[in-house]
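dude i think i finally got it to work??
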Amino acid sequence: MNRRWLAYSIATLALSASAVALPAGVASAAPCSDVDVSFARGTGEFPGLGITGTPFVNSLKSQLSDRSVSTYAVDYAADFTQASAGPGSRDLVAHLNSVAASCPSTTFVIGGYSQGATVVTNAVGLRTPSSFTGAVIPAAIADRVEAVVVFGNPLGLTGRKIETASATYGARANSFCNFGDPVCQIGGFNAFAHLQYGTNGSTAQGAQFAAAQVRS
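look at this
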């Protein structure tokens, strides 16, 4: 299968799906929340949390209903070339640094879907084709990142995942890759599998993991 055609097809489907997703965007529960959740959307999605980030964040907020939770939609192009993941990680790291400086008690959950997962992969210090234009979370605030959750991470095509590749974040990470998803699974054959994380229970499972990490 032609890789450029596959990337275009998946992104086009994601864009169509995002048009009917619940409204998403940057929202803040308080100037300094207990937990700040950042999420990077996938390729071709409209700005905001996206078709995967929206249900993930909603589920996490529900599971952390006793705490104040702010949200941030990573501001990046999410373009078809995938090169925007580098600048995306710079935006994510800048946001974390800003909140960390202003809110010393706030902890973080970070997540991403598809190219947004690459944004997160870059930010936690793992090399990807776009990492040389990206940024890495400073060691000074690394301990405040309670959980890292990614869906359809292209890192899987190299036989790696954050859980096993990152000495710093591995124990706090959870990666979801649907069977047959060609974006994260070597030999993947089903482009529609890449669009089902928000509807097949993965986002709820990811939120449950993140909530448990926050409470631990």
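Residues 46 and 57 are 17 Å apart (CA to CA).
im so relieved honestly
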